[in-house]
Amino acid sequence: MKRLCTICARSGSKGLENKNTRLLLGKPLIAYSIESALNSGLFDKIAVSSDCEKILETAKGWKADCLIKRPIELSEDTSPKIPAIVHCLLEVERMEGYTFDIIVDLDVTSPLRHVSDIKNVVEILEKSSISNVVSGTYPNCSPYFNMVEMDEKGELKLCKTIKKPIQRRQDAPICYQLNASVYAWKREFLLKGGSTLLNKDTFLYVMPRERSVDIDDELDFLFVEFLLSKRELLNK
After folding, report:
1. Quick check: keyword Heme in the entry (predicted)?
2. How far is CA 39 from CA 178, 190, 216, 223, 229, in A?
3. Which pLDDT score, from 0 to 100, does residue 194 have?
4. Alpha-carbon span 69 to 85, nearest angstrom
5. How far is CA 115 from CA 28, 89, 121, 207, 228, in A?
6. In 3D, which of 139, 71, 82 has the Cα closest to residue 107?
7. Residue 41 pLDDT
8. Phi, psi angle pair for 48, to nearest 5°
9. For strand 177-186 and strand 102-106, is the pairing parallel, antiparallel, or unpaired?
């Protein structure tokens, strides 16, 4: 069973400038995902895909195996991520001369994951007939209780409703929030039918909220920095 870890990190972040190489407690943000992949001991190769030479050089310094230059058309603000993962996979296979069975993508902006999260996701995928696994967590808000949207008239309404109005958050249907941490596919599905993240046999791996912060802006970065500094307390 051959496994590839992909880490996709394009330049041009709008929410937080240069976030992929920004120092977080003394290490570049991208280093956390590379180290997690290395420490898992699961992967035959760890590949970093980027349109930015600085990011690729940083990844090389933290012992990524393969550095993949991402085409411009896969690096725009509007570019979806899965085609970039597929491009990375095919480039690594071309370079190495063999194919991979399992592809796991670790998002740079989710450094709070544990190695155990990666191992659990891979185990679930390999021991079942499902095609892919995504990670998520329990959200702060519910579309049935306190998430609202505005219609064309400017009127507010709940995002989702059911016949019996929800009076307490605890009575709302259980919902999950994808946490952009660990994604995994079987190769055949990723190449032939995995252009959408959620499919009829997608499995959700649930992570606790303290490991599920996705860095998108300065506040997220500061919160992750705080949680990492308190990790020993959180793990007790």
Report:
1. no
2. 24, 25, 25, 24, 20
3. 58
4. 12
5. 18, 22, 10, 12, 15
6. 82
7. 97
8. -110, 130
9. antiparallel
- With 0-12 / 13-18 / 19 or more C-beta atoms within 10 angstroms meaning exposed / middle / buried, residue 12 is exposed
Token pair for 77: 């603000």
CA 220 to chain centre: 15
Q: How far is CA 230 from the centre of its chain?
A: 22
CA distance 75 to 52: 10
For CATH 3.90.550.10, the residue range(s) in the chain are: 3-134+179-234
Residue ranges for the chain with pLDDT beneath 70 = 193-195, 232-236
Tell which residue, 182, 8, 188, has the closest CA to residue 80. Answer: 8
Q: Tokens in use for 183?
A: 């994604």
Residues 51 and 71: their CA atoms lie apart, in Å, by 7
